[in-house]
Amino acid sequence: MKKMIVMSMAAVIFASQIGIALAMFDGNPRKGRFIFRQECRPCHMENPIGPEPAHYLGPDAKRQAEWAEVFQNKEELPCFEHWKDVSADDLNDVFTYLHGGAADSPTPEKCG
Amino acid sequence: MKDKMPPLSRRKFLKTSLAAAAISAGAGSPLVKSLVPRAHASGARPPGQITSHYTACDMCFNRCGMIARVQNGVITKIDPNPAFLKSRGMLCARGNAATKHIYDPDRLKYPLRRAGKRGEGKWERISWEEALDYTAEKLLEIGEKYTRCGVMFIPGSDMQSQFVNRFAEVFGSYNITSHETLCLLSKNRAYLDTIGEVPYPDVYYSKYIIVAGANPFEAFITPDTMDFFEARKNGCKIIVLDPRFTKTAAMADEWYQIKPGTDMAFFLALCHVIAKEELYEAEGCCPVNTYGFEEFFLHIRKYTPEWAEKECGIPAQDIARIAREIAAAAPAAMVYPGRRTSDYEDSTQIRRAMAITNALLNNFDKPGGLLAIREVGVKTPYYDVPWYDDNPFDRVEAGLVPGLIDHEGSFQLMREAIISGEPYPIKGWFNFKTNFMQTAANRNKTIEMIDHLEFIVNIDIAMTDTAWYSDVVLPGASFLERKDPVSALQGSSACACAVFRDPVVPEMFESRSPFWICKELSKRMGLADSFDFTIDEYRRQQVDGLEGAMEAMENMGVYYNPSKTYGIYAGSPLKTLTGVKEIFNQRYEASGVDPMPVYRRPKQPAENQFRLVVGRTAFFTHSNTNNELLTEFMEENTLNIHPEPATRMGLSDGDLVEVKSKAGQGRLRLEFTEGIEKQTVYTATGFGALSPEMSLVHNKGASISELLEDYHDEISGNMAMHETFVSIRKVA
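The joint structure predicted for all components is written out below.
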């Protein structure tokens, strides 16, 4: 049973990967890292210091498909109000950074 | 346990400082050599109480727990910390020799600025104030002229490297590279691309281990090295493949003198037998929890044991037998991943073949197999990084290989970029405790790179060859004099632990820690906010939420996190693209790289040519050879050669020969050994120093960096150090 669950999850993840292909995440990941650290990390670090402390988030906190899902449904984020002031280019940079260093990316990255 | 530290005698300190001040640039002179030990000798006054201090070793990268014994302000002895599980309470020769590290007469004593040509050895003593002002001014100047990415940073592999890394980031350069790009990058690449992380071998509980291209009985990795002995006592079978009869080979159950560069042939044939005879565990492994098993099954049809025998020289029946034996012992069995894999241009693919063998053994996350990273819980304190709009888009060597690990880069490819000036200029180098002039292949090319740089600043404890070619040399404090942040360590099934260091004795001479240096520089460069904290504050942030961690490190020298060891994934998908073990790698295919390892016969040396291979001894770490105690084991490196070809060439044991490659040449004495493949020669690292202030190894033997030609792994950009062929000629 456990094996079937693993395989199903893998299939879903892989299907999502094919779906997103390279249609997004073509921004500047280094600038994205900078913006993420400025805008998100204070609340999403291991010991949050921002105004609305939340759980740790860094590129390696999610898989690429999961970041794609977050990006596509960003309106549903609890902190979406905050994102409204971030330009589309900056947002693309942030997600390029997160997607590029995701847990299942070639080079997973923790946000230090 | 932690006793009050007796202060360094003011009289002794003054004696040392004044005498040191009385001489100018000749730090390697007999005066200084005799001065330092005497100034710190405990015999100068009646023996005082011996105090004991927990610390962590820095003589290599393992960070074994140690206890320093201090008498009259002098470290007189180093003992292992028996409570330190990662090293199983062991301290090796290097750890014991740390007393000669801190009290090395060749230590740098004060800041120096180059006063002649690079490498000429003319220096002027300057104050810290002047050194810091000048360094800050030069870094800012380069940042202004060439963008902040115009400075290359090499932060070393030290407990304070994180501060140099932070400094590089807040300065604004992402051209940061490391010693690891000369070491284990290709292995990391291979395992990341097969199981989604870099695993830790559970040697202790293993029942069958193949060690290929690694030498853990000399190139210590804790706890692996000690665990090999325990595992063997517990009935583990150890198979070693190596062109050299290493110490590991000597302790193995079976040693095969494999032809250099043919390991992939052996492992593909091993997989052939395991797959063909269906020796894998169908339920838990293949094909269900792998991607591309069917393609691989077809791919390896041609890689039979009989075919492999012709390539690697290991009899087909032995390959088949080993395949059956290791599969029977699985999952408590493994191909040992090793550490340094900077050997061939296809080193990632060689390690992919090993990683795939491990995948077939279904040993990941299981006792006696390969373990996932355990939780230690040490946190990374937050800091802001600035953004510079004029910075280039990416690292200078980005895109030159398909599998570059972004936060490591590739020193070799950066060196090429600096020489060519493409895609953009790098004109500065900030270096901490890394000696690429001795460790990186093709020293002449490193010198050529240096010729293209406008400013080099180097922090080190001694005048290494790299420091010798720098513009400003800053005397670093030794690990026994420093207050260091918390460091998280992975200890396989032995432990997941954390350590820190407090100063055992005060900083000697004018030496300072990298933390202090970065802090002072940041003040001068408008970056003070990034270093506005103390080490104590930093540590508290690191262990926040880890109950009892600080107390354990203070009272026992180590904190253990009782985190899960096995079954960490517990049915969750792996961190690979498909969530399962990737035998077939789609990203490779998309990048034009073989998605499964394809064997290509290595190029062969011509008649009377030899393949030069390098490796580690148990008593030196890389180029850290300039130690009075450790050079008792080896005063000069020699060239190991098989007597048969040597005799055929009219050479005798002990002859002085000139060893020549396309990169350079050096002189070494021959040392005959039948324990080496006939067209392979070997020499140790860390000799033939250019710097006369590495007095024990200057003009002794030859440097591997002079002899090795520069090749790199085609996927990761890791240096490839076993592709060089040399000719040998007797010196009259």
